[in-house]
Structure prediction request, 321 residues.
Amino acid sequence: MAATVASTAGSSSCLSFVAESLILPTRNGSLFASLFALVFAHTFVSVAVAGAVVFVQPIAASVLLQVKLLIRNDVRVRYAVESDGFWVPAEKLLLFYLAYLASKLATQVAVALAASATACGRPCTFVELVRGKEPTGSIRGALATAALVAVLELASTALLTGCFASWWTYSAAHTETGGMESFISGCLLLLFLLALISHLCLAAVFTLAIAVSAAEEGGGGGSHFRRSWRLVTARARRKEAAVMVLMASLLPVAIYPAYAFAAYCGTAWALVFVPGYLLPSTGALFHSTVAATVFYQQCMEHHRAIKETAAIPLMAKLDTE
Prediction:
């Protein structure tokens, strides 16, 4: 019976968390409409640059193919590497990723500041948000935390890329696999999958760190990141944390195949699938940031309620004395 009640309470708290994250933007519709347009512009420009300027998918495939041929000591590929035919596309990919990361974090900071102000009952306008006059939090603290998140996300991406490159190069160098080669390749693949899962889970922690910095005044990026880590790993809110990880990490991954299929099929299919990718991707980035803010606010309310409950017996004891 107690387990049933606890399960029902946990389900209701998850439902209230999801409902609140959906309702919060309606409390300041004009501001969040502007922010949704801002996130949409970020997504549109990223997709347009990736598809029409940088050609991310073909360049990435070309780099992987050249690495595979380089392992096999192909003379033509070795000459291309020496003549910068290999590094120039790789530099384009890196520059595109850095620009995308900076744009994404800037939009997340804006949405987190607006969501935090609205959740506290002190909504602001888009002009006040741009000028840094939002009623809660500190735009400098949020930007400092975003800078730390950028460094950590780059490190996480580098680790993920290194694990994938290790598995890819070993598999390419050992095409005739035996027992030991298959075992090592399987271990490298398992290491890559673990790095991928960690990368996806950390995405939720990074988003929550930005939400924490938008809600709290003072403190550095490190303290905000540590607080977000404690909130995500706390057992009391583990179901809500799992839902937030789903929103921040797995939802964008589930949407991505539409864009990948359009990029693979060419321009004609891109006109059909890319618009269907833009709105869900925009909604995923927008809603995950709002959900992180709601998660933080509910955690703080839960913490205050526990402190007040613990203080009641002490006050009653003092009154009797």
Observations:
- The radius of gyration is 23 Å.
- The chain has one domain: 25-320.
- Residues 25-320 form one domain.
- Residues 1-9, 314-319 have pLDDT under 50 and may be disordered.
